[in-house]
Amino acid sequence: MILPEPLRKQLGPSFLGLNLDRVSFILSEPARLATPSCCPHAYVRAGSSPEVGTVFIHPDFWNPGSITTLRLVAHELYHQAQMQSPDFNMLYEEMAKETERLGLPPWKHPMEVPAYRMEEMVDVN
């Protein structure tokens, strides 16, 4: 499915460089899950952007009228915008290895930090 209109209206202005019509949202358990022992943050299991144009949202986290869903979608759209860079996958994997080597939790990954900041900027109004 494409992003529902109410979410599009709220989030679209933050993602002007991203064609939201080309992002499919699939309600299913995310394809990319982190190791549960290292990742207590709920959103790690709630959403995933495994490739350009595809976002998986766990059905338990899909409630378009909730702030949780709005923030989760903003987080994943941020990753979709990051993926516009042709080197994204290579850089993401390199940084993931370095984050792990340093013993940091996955949400401290340098490409995750701004996605979490994007979540924090989302407001219910």
Keywords, separated by commas or semicolons:
3 strands; 125 residues; 3-stranded mixed β-sheet; 40% helix; 5 helices; alpha+beta; 10% strand
Based on helices, strands and strand pairing, what is the structural class?
alpha+beta
Strand order of the largest sheet: 1-3-2
Alpha-carbon distance between the two ends: 24 Å
Q: How much beta, percentage-wise?
A: 5-15%
Give the overall silhouette. Answer: globular
Q: Strand count, sense and closure of the main sheet?
A: 3 strands, mixed
Number of helical runs? 5
Give me the strand/helix succession: HEHEEHHH
Q: Radius of gyration in whole Å, from Cα?
A: 14 Å
Q: Roughly what percent helix?
A: 40-55%
Number of extended strands: 3
Please mark out the parts with pLDDT under 50 across 5 or more consecutive residues, or reply none: 33-43
Mean pLDDT: 85
